[in-house]
Amino acid sequence: MEVSESLKTSLILVALSVLTAGSFAAAHNVVTPDEPVNVGMVEVETRCAGVDIGACIGIQRQTHTTYNYDNYTEIEEGTPNYYRKVESELMLRATNTCTEEMDGMEWTSEVSYENRTADEWLENENIQLLPCEKTYYRTLNATR
Question: Within 10 A of 123 (CB to CB), how many other CB atoms are there?
Answer without folding.
Answer: 8
